[in-house]
């Protein structure tokens, strides 16, 4: 990994694991330890925010340079020395513990809450980079599940061949769909290799066949894609996910060098977008979180969003 990138990530609070792995403590993990107030995933899906590790197997490797991405984009397209999956999950737990150890004596954090945080049961593989470019992704998921750690895998959807071969599948698969057509995809998501729009559409076609819980996330950028709910609804109909999350872009991090504050949609605009998509696909707005500018769409007959399903037994 480039030394300049390592320095930038270190300044931003990342802890690196080998050549590509990384952990960073989420704001909501800290907030949950202090106050019990968790992220919107806790509200929607029943996870415990203070027991969640935010990590990536390849912090420096991505095939898109999305304008709305708030991460430092010192990306490359290959990694000749990917981290061993066993080393990666053990290193992630160790790094996470080192990052939260200072909260042990904080009077706002109970002993019981800290002990729970010290023993994470959730991994969000979403920190930075594109995880389907990590060659040992199935092994990483298996190592997590062996430890009773639930996995939320977030992908840009450009690796359908990888997703099709995953064994085991993640507990929950997020696919970010941020463009309603190829032209906007090329300008907003800035693909770095050919045929990524085609690959994304193959992933949408693949999703109904996967046995894990699936979520489509629409990252909404005003002036770019917020204005196309009908086109997104048509894509969602193909993917037939368990849930859809219209989520507003926030003007933070390195995205401030590419977009403007005016590109942030209001919560009412996100809600209107969600209501339109839901109506077109026979769904309902199940829940919403104004702080995170996101709403949850799904089948009103299901109650799967109320609590996290138990982890399957892994041999």
- Full CATH superfamily name: Aldolase class I
Number of domains: 1
Oligomerization state of this entry? single chain
Q: From the helix content, strand content and strand pairing, which structural class follows? A: alpha/beta
- Helical stretch tally: 11
Q: Enter the CATH topology name.
A: TIM Barrel
The proportion of strand residues reads 15-25%
Shape: globular
Radius of gyration: 19 Å
| Mean pLDDT, all residues | 93
Low-confidence stretches: none
Distance between the termini: 35 Å
H/E series: HEEHHEHHEHEHEHHEHEHEE
Strand count, sense and closure of the main sheet? 10 strands, mixed
Tell me how many strands there are: 10
Query: Strand order across the biggest sheet?
Result: 1-2-3-4-5-6-7-8-10-9
CATH hierarchy class name? Alpha Beta
Give helix % range: 25-40%
- Architecture per CATH nomenclature, i.e. the level-2 architecture: Alpha-Beta Barrel
Short description:
The chain is of the alpha/beta class. It is built from 11 helices and 10 strands.
Write up this protein.
It is a single chain. The chain has 315 residues and is of the alpha/beta class. It has a single domain, classed as Alpha-Beta Barrel (TIM Barrel), CATH 3.20.20.70. Helices cover 34% and strands 16% of the residues. The protein contains 11 helices and 10 strands. It has a 10-stranded mixed β-sheet with strand order 1-2-3-4-5-6-7-8-10-9, sandwiched between helices. β5, α7 and β6 form a beta-alpha-beta unit. α10 packs across α11. The protein is globular.
């Amino acid at each position: 990994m480039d030394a300049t990138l390592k320095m930038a990530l270190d300044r931003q609070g990342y802890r690196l694991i080998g050549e590509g792995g990384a952990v960073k403590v989420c704001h909501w993990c800290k907030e949950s330890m202090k106050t019990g107030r968790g992220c919107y995933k806790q509200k929607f899906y029943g996870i415990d925010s203070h027991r969640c590790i935010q990590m990536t197997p390849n912090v420096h490797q991505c095939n898109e340079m999305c304008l709305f991405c708030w991460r430092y984009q010192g990306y490359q397209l290959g990694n000749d020395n990917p981290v061993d999956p066993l080393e990666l999950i053990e290193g992630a737990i160790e790094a996470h513990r080192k990052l939260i150890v200072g909260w042990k004596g904080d009077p706002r954090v109970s002993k019981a809450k800290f002990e729970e945080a010290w023993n994470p049961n959730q991994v969000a593989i979403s920190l930075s980079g594109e995880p389907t470019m990590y060659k040992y992704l199935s092994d990483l998921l298996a190592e997590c599940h062996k430890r009773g750690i639930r996995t939320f895998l977030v992908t840009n959807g450009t690796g359908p061949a990888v997703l099709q071969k995953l064994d085991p599948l993640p507990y929950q698969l997020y696919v970010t769909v941020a463009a309603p057509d190829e032209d906007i995809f090329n300008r907003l998501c800035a693909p770095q290799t050919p045929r990524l729009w085609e690959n994304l559409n193959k992933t949408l076609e693949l999703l109904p066949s996967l046995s894990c819980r699936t979520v489509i996330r629409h990252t909404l950028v005003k002036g770019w894609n917020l204005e196309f709910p009908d086109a997104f609804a048509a894509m969602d109909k193909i993917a037939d996910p368990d849930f859809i999350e219209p989520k507003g872009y926030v003007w933070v991090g390195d995205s401030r060098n590419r977009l403007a504050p005016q590109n942030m949609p209001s919560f009412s605009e996100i809600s209107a977008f969600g209501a339109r998509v839901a109506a077109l696909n026979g769904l309902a707005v199940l829940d919403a979180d104004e702080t995170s500018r996101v709403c949850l769409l799904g089948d009103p007959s299901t109650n799967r969003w109320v609590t996290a399903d138990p982890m399957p037994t892994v041999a």
